[in-house]
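Homework help board

Subject: predicted structure for assignment chain

Our instructor gave us this sequence and asked us to write out the predicted structure in token form, then describe one feature. I got the tokens but I'm not sure how to describe them. Can anyone check?
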Amino acid sequence: MMSTQEALEDQRSRGVHSKPLNSGPRHLRQSLTIQRGRLSVKRMFTMITGVNFTVIAYLIVISGQNVMNGYRDDHSTIIIFSLTVLLGILSALSFLIIERRVVNPLNRLARQTKSIQREHADKLLPINSHHDEISELVSAFNDLLVGMRNTYSNLQEANQELRSANKQIEDSIRYAGILQRSILPDRQLNDIFEERYFVLWEPKDIVGGDYYLFHKDEGRYLTGVADCAGHGVPGAMMTMMARAGVDRAIQEVGIDSPARLLRSLDASLRGIVLDDLQSRAIATSMDMGLVLLDFDQRQLRFAGARIALYWSNGNDIHWIHGENRAICDRRQGSYVDHDLELLPGFTYYLSTDGYLDQSGGEHGYAIGSERFTQWLLKNARKPLSEQRNAFSESLARFRGNHPQRDDITILSFRFD
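My token output:
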């Protein structure tokens, strides 16, 4: 089977030529003009029309003279009869020319075009041997068809390249997701809390800007959640930098005071990020809530930067808001420790704003603090594994068909 280009070259080798379609009005006029030695439909109709006009004019003149002279002779009658017969013959010839050179070719072209559309997408329209205007039209159409097929082929190649590049990017992001998950302390949390904790971590994309942390030091445990500005790959890059900043701050000031640790982290990230002039045009802040747990003393110490601590036993609910300034905010914040007694029967929660800000419901409103605290009261007495499912299912039902707006993280634990 010949390709489109080969079919076009075959037609040209048999004497049917076509020129590019973009050669301008001059070429268009030339394509409608017959070449020397070719009898086109236009010339044939011009000749027949001229003869018909001459015959009709002559008949009018002869008839007028007879009327004016008041007589008829046999010679004039023969001439009029002959011309009338000639006119009839020319009219019949005109009908045949229209039928064979215009109507039939156009009907044939319509059928062939539909056949190409339905079954033979790689074919071209056949060109007849009359070399008339219809042949020129078919040749121009074939040129256009070849150009469109070449363009489509180029688009397919470009799309294939885009799909290949997109796959490479997706593979890289999935690998980045594996790396990000590797810094999350699931094993350490499970070793310490066993069945007394749960984490709901749902990035908006494959990777995200939320993460949670855990650090053990001489029988005390530091845990918390963080929400870096942005989501996706930029957010994930920020979590890596934030994780390194937290480790450095712990080495410098220890874990005795979560507030002091937040101040140290803020200072170190501020020196790295805000000194870069380019970073001033983008968001580089981070919300964080940290909790220091001393199970022996049954004490909890909390400090937060725009993240609150909630606790509930199913009957009562309490919370402490974090400070209003995020880590690495444009204006430096001040962070304070809050000491609480670890109460048995209470479940404690740290959540990033992605859960509370998720839109849904009939009117597309956010979950908000009031609905969130109602869900806390409803689920606080359940086992932690059931609570995770309950919060995940409540979120899915509320969200409905609305897209996920942000990364979501809830870290919850209980002291018995």
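Reply (TA_rk): Your tokens look well-formed. For the description, you could write something like this. The radius of gyration is 43 Å. That's the kind of observation they're looking for.
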